[in-house]
Amino acid sequence: MNASELAALRLLVAHRGQVVTPLELQQALWGDEAVAADSVSNCLASLREHLEPEDCIESSPKRGYRFTAEVQVLDAENFAGPPRLAIVPFTAGYGVPEYLGPALAEDAGFRLAGAQPTPAFILAPESVFALDRRGLSPRQIGERMNADLVLSGELRAMASRYRLRAEMMRVDNGSQLWAEDLLVDHAQTAELVRDLVKRTRIRLSGLGLSIAAAADPAATEPEPAPQQREAYELFVRGRYEWQTLERHRMQDAMQHLERAIELDPDLTEARVSLVNLCLAQAVCGYLPALSAAEVVDRIAGSLADLPVRREVLLPALGWSVFYVNRDLPAALRAFARSAHLPHNPWITRARTMFALSRHRFGEAIELQRAAVGDDPYSAWLQARLAWSYHLAGESSLSLQAAHAVIQQFPGEVGPELYAAMIFAFHGERGEAVELAQALVRRVPYFDPATAVHAYALAMAGRADEAYTILDRLQWLRRERYAMSTFAPAAYVALGQADAALDELRAADELRCPWFFQMLADPRLLPLRERPEFASMLGILTGMEAEAERNPPDA
Question: Were both Cys, which of 83, 97, 455, 479 would link to 148 (CB 3.0–4.6 Å)?
Fold first, then answer.
């Protein structure tokens, strides 16, 4: 729909049920500009093609036109501030790639959240998507998330096009505010998201009609080039794949994102996703921290001259300079300059790990509690909170949180990983072994889970089995990078202090992001009298002293 058609729609809706003359329409659409005699009738004929039902504009012979359909206005006064909007993953029909529905819904949410002025408060996608995986309906998801509105969609594949049927409903009464059909060629999914975002912004700004309207003419953008379209396809696929936290899919995602950046250097979202992917791989043990830091530094440098806000990368830069360069003042500056950024899983993870690594447990717990308020169904967030209690020496809270997260998120990787460690430490060894075994069977390539399995077996008195697993990890390191930081606890449980220190030494040399946290782990308490362990703690003490001599605001 073009600007003239939208202006005609606004005028007709504003006078619903009343006749609007052709002269009034002409004046509203073109002012005093000279136009052809049939311009108004042609405009209205084209407008009708965009509306459902098409006969909602009635012609009154020799008088004009009247809008007859019922109108539902999204009354912003019913909401305290911008409405809370949950965007659920779009369902995908036959022939639609697995990743496309969720990826497009996620991207629409990111674009709406970054729009100015902000049309709505976009609720945490991790929690919304988690509830969708449980089989809840859109309205049920909205109720769980305390949303005002829910946006859902169904994506279907046609011969050469995708059709998205998008719907928005009010959560309080389940009424449908509007529904629209968007149709694009298979190679134009970027336009599909852009069009959906424009239409949603129009609705949220007050044009909440129960008919199909069109995009905001003021927000027109240049037509993407073919290589930009290909770049966008690679970007949305890469972002979806890496969030699975599966080793091979994350490696594929790196290739997709690198290629997307090569095809479209201005696709900033691909650069941000590549940075987050590298940090996630370093945390999972799939990529050395040194390699991840190289990518972070390269991407941050590449954005220096682009008209984008680099602040979204500041937490990642803080992560890089702290763990790899061991430059605490620079890290503090990066985190301080990005303190205003709202919660998202990757920013909160970087902030939390930074606080835990500095042994500022109260700060980390406070960060996570606040994030849980916005993202209550994030399994990893809840699991890391239990871990933070463990590191802080809050035994009862840690155990309580571990039991709660296992009950709330059965079969999830993060909860099982942290709960297995916490249960084994607190004597619930049978359950710990069972959890760790199930986790290793499900994600055999996830080295931290293998080390936790060895620890649970050692605590359960099954030393031979624990040694077999630890020997296997040693062999793996001859073939590929394998994280060593979770193994020291297993060696301590087996009474092998020297082997535990060897593992910590290797973690220190490789700048493992878990290294400083493990120095605070109560499971390693027997090592604290060893001089080498004290020396390792001294690294952090020295960094803190340097930060005091060179404060971030200096």
Answer: 83
Residue 70: exposed, middle, or buried by beta-carbon count in 10 A (0-12, 13-18, 19+)?
Answer: exposed
In DSSP notation, 435-502 reads: HHHHHHHH-TT-HHHHHHHHHHHHHTT-HHHHHHHHHHHHHHTTTS----TTHHHHHHHTT-HHHHHH
pTM of the model: 0.83
Report the pLDDT value the prediction gives residue 215, as an integer from 0 to 100.
Answer: 38
CB 274 within 8 A of CB 254: yes
Q: Tell me how far apart the alpha carbons of residues 182 and 201 are, in angstroms, rounded to a whole number.
A: 15
Question: What tokens does 214 get?
Answer: 């069109």
Average pLDDT of the chain, as a whole number: 89
Question: Domain 3-67, CATH 1.10.10.10 — does that match?
Answer: yes
Domain topology for 227-317: 1.25.40
Residue type, 405: V
What single letter denotes the amino acid at residue 424? A
Average pLDDT over residues 85-100: 94
Question: What type of residue is 288?
Answer: P
Q: How far apart are CA 356 and CA 388, in angstroms?
A: 7
Question: Would you say 234 and 103 are in contact if contact means Cβ atoms under 8 Å apart?
Answer: no
pLDDT in tens, 312-361: 889 999 999 999 999 999 999 999 999 988 898 999 999 999 999 999 99
Q: Which three-class secondary structure state does DSSP give residue 370?
A: helix
Q: Are strands 149-157 and 91-92 parallel, antiparallel or unpaired?
A: parallel
Q: What pLDDT, on the 0 to 100 scale, is given for residue 550?
A: 81
Sequence-ordered strand ranges (E) for 331-453: none
Q: Could you tell me the residue ranges of all domains in the chain?
A: 3-67, 76-222, 227-317, 342-548
Task: Write out the CATH class of domain 342-548.
Answer: mainly alpha
